[in-house]
Amino acid sequence: VVHDLFDYLRGGICNFAILVCDHERKWVFFDKEEAKKHEREHIFLDEVDTFPYASQISLRFDTADEASKVTALITEKFDKILNPCQNGNCIDIVKYGMDKSIGILEYCSLVGLSEKDVITAGDNYNDLAMIKRFEGCAVGRAVEPLVAVAKHRYPTIDKLIEDFC
To answer: Which of 108, 114, 116, 130 is CA-nearest to residue 164?
Structure first.
C-alpha cells in the first residue's frame, strides 16, 4: 500500500512524505532534485523497503485548505485501506480502522486502566475520534467539528490540567 500511495502522491500532489516508525522519522523524497532543497535525513522512493515499517505516514502542505483537499482525495482513492487525518496543514495517514482512540484503548489494556480513567484533549481533525470516544475536551483554537463533540472547552491545556488535577 505504501508504494501505491507514494505513486499516487508523486503524480503532482506533493514532493515528499515522512515515514514514522516509533520515534524514528525518515523523509522520503519523490524527486532527487527536491531532496537537494532540504537539509533533512532522508531516503529516496526506491529505498522505502529498507525502512522497517511505518506506523504513520505524514504529509505537509502550505495551507490547511490544500491538506483538506488531499485528505479527501486519499480517502476516496484508498477507502477502507488508509485513514488520512488532517492536522492543520498536515495529514497523518494510518491504516484504516486505526486512530488515536484505538491507541489509547490499547494503552489502557496494557497498563490496566479503564476508559473512565482517561482524559483526552485535542484541537484538530486527527483528534476527533479520540474526543468522541472518551468525551474529551477541546483546547485552544480547536476546529469547529471537534468543539461540537467535545464535552468541555478550555483556552489552554494548562487550564484543563488545573481543573482535573
So the answer is: 116
What lies within 8 Å, CB to CB, of 40 at 6+ separation is 27
> Which amino acid type is present at position 82?
L
- Strand partners for 4: none
CA 121, CA 96: separation in Å to the nearest integer? Answer: 22
Alpha carbon distance 132, 33 (integer Å): 43
* Cα torsion 150, 153, 157, 161: sign: negative
Q: What is the dihedral of CA 88, 108, 139, 25, to 10 degrees?
A: -30
Distance, in Å, from the CA atom of 147 to the CA atom of 128, rounded to the nearest integer, reads: 9
DSSP annotation of 111 reads H
Q: How do residues 61-107 score in pLDDT, each as one tens digit? A: 999 999 999 999 999 999 999 999 998 899 999 999 988 999 999 99
- Please say whether the dihedral angle defined by the alpha carbons of residues 156, 149, 57 and 69, taken in this order, is positive or negative: negative
Nearest Cα to 164, choosing from 104, 121, 110?
A: 121
pTM: predicted TM-score of the whole model, two decimal places: 0.80
